[in-house]
Amino acid sequence: MRAIRIGCGAGYSGDRIDPAVELAEKGSISYLVFECLAERTIALAQKAKLLDPQAGYDPLLEERMEAVLPICAKHKIRIITNMGAANPIAAAAKTKAIAEKLGLHGLRIAAVTGDDVLTLIMEAGPVNTPQPLPGKTLSANAYLGIEPILEALAAEADVILTGRVADPSLFLAPLVHEFGWSTRDWQILGQGTLTGHLLECAGQITGGYFADPGYKDVPNLARLGFPIAEVSENGSAVITKVEGSGGRIDIATCKEQLLYEIQDPAAYFTPDVVADFSRVSIRELAADRVHISGGSGGPRPETLKVSVGYHDGYVGEGQISYAGPGALARARLAQDILAERLQSYGLSELRFDLIGLNSIHGERLSRMDCEPYEIRLRAAGKANTIKSASMISREVEALYTNGPAGGGGVAGSTREIVAIFSMLLPRTSVTHRIHYEVS
After folding, report:
1. What distance in Å separates the CA atoms of residue 269 and residue 135, rounded to the nearest whole number?
2. H or E stretch including 178?
3. Could you tell me if 383 and 348 are in contact, meaning their C-beta atoms sit under 8 angstroms apart?
4. How far apart are CA 376 and CA 393, in angstroms?
5. Are 347 and 358 in contact (CB under 8 A)?
6. Which of 159, 175, 273, 308 is the most exposed place for a label (fewest CB within 10 A)?
7. Taking the mean position of all CA atoms in its chain, how far away is CA 77?
8. Which string of b and e fits 320-338 if b means at least 16 CB within 10 Å?
């Protein structure tokens, strides 16, 4: 049975680049997919575009393309990625310039737009949500599906740069294109979406964010390999990686990734299909080769999810360390001083953490029966103005000479909060467009 090999070269914007190069060089793949957009990433990219109309794409796009374009061109590997972020057209122009600089001529580069629906939602408002639109909105991007990628593939694009596209759709589109699957065959689309969901976080399925020494050991994490899916025409897939690369792929790593970000395994909503993962079969064939089947699905939803990014004030933070006998008591005294001093600055959601003692699970669950030799106090809070938020780090620094003995290692920061609001739009109101460049 014919099979298509797809590799995942990134699971988030700042991911490593060398595993993607390894996939292109040694993975015998036909497609290399970079999944680089989290919910807030595109809102931050939109802010960058507002400052510079030629910015707003992934900050590592240039470095990634310089690393993989020559290899992909040599081996005729097609690249699909959402590194276009808030500015796919500028990303395509930059990719063309990189290709020409590298002497790669004749590459067809597609930029998918249409996911930016900020103007539309300001006019139409949200659908099926009781919450009003937040103030100070920065961005609004609909999750597109496979349609624009299919169009670009049919137009023989070598590189496809999108904005906000649903993560598994980046992987599903080349399968539909290669095998001629119907875009209304919900069962096969559900199975293809399963493969996309397993690949989309790159190193997570090969042992990243999985390792737990003594319980779940992962070999050679420093050279973690990224995953490959060998997908057959019936939709079943074998998840594997480049031989000799670090990490592991087995039933346990696949199960953990299968459940990642899934609320209802029987109804995983995407723009292409409502996928059903409740009857998935996972079978180990050999070392680092796991067979996946049993995905299914139902008709796609009539609405598209939209992520709205908005300004939500500022957060200030300050940290200071105490060590030696009585470190905990001195840190708690410093906390009391800060709590009193910070009352007058109009801060909200003020919190204090004793890092190493209670900062993750709080005092109810944290172990409190031993005296730590060193402790780091963190103070953080939210404010409407940057000036008020910056008072946290200033007050922490003042503990050097106005607080308990032995404080050191002060660090502080103040930053804008970009928050996310989700809503729905009718899919009929969202229209994609494709722009082409040729190197």
Report:
1. 28
2. helix 169-179
3. yes
4. 14
5. no
6. 308
7. 23
8. bbbbeeebbebbbbbbebb
What whole-number distance in Å separates Cα of residue 231 and Cα of residue 235?
Answer: 6
Give the DSSP H/E element, type plus range, for residue 75.
helix 61-75
For the question of whether the overall pTM of this predicted structure is more than 0.70, the answer is yes
pLDDT in tens, 27-40: 999 999 999 998 88
Cα–Cα separations (whole angstroms), residue 155 to 28, 76, 149, 150, 288:
23, 15, 10, 9, 35
92 close to 112: Cβ distance less than 8 angstroms: no
What the block records as the tokens of 247 is 């990490």
* Residues 6 or more apart whose Cβ sits within 8 Å of residue 290: 238, 239, 240, 249, 250, 251, 254, 282, 283, 284
- Three-state DSSP class for 150? helix
**Confidence at residue 358, expressed as pLDDT on a 0 to 100 scale:** 77
Q: Which residues are CB-neighbours of 411 under 8 A, at least 6 positions away?
A: 318, 319
Rounded-to-integer distance, Cα 276 and Cα 290, Å: 19
- Closest by CA position to 171, among listed 149, 140, 186, 144: 149
Q: Can you read off the two tokens belonging to residue 71? A: 């290899």
For residue 369, give both structure tokens. Answer: 């029966």
Calpha distance 292→64 (Å, rounded): 30
Task: Using alpha carbons, list the distances in angstroms from residue 212 to 208, 209, 226.
Answer: 10, 9, 19
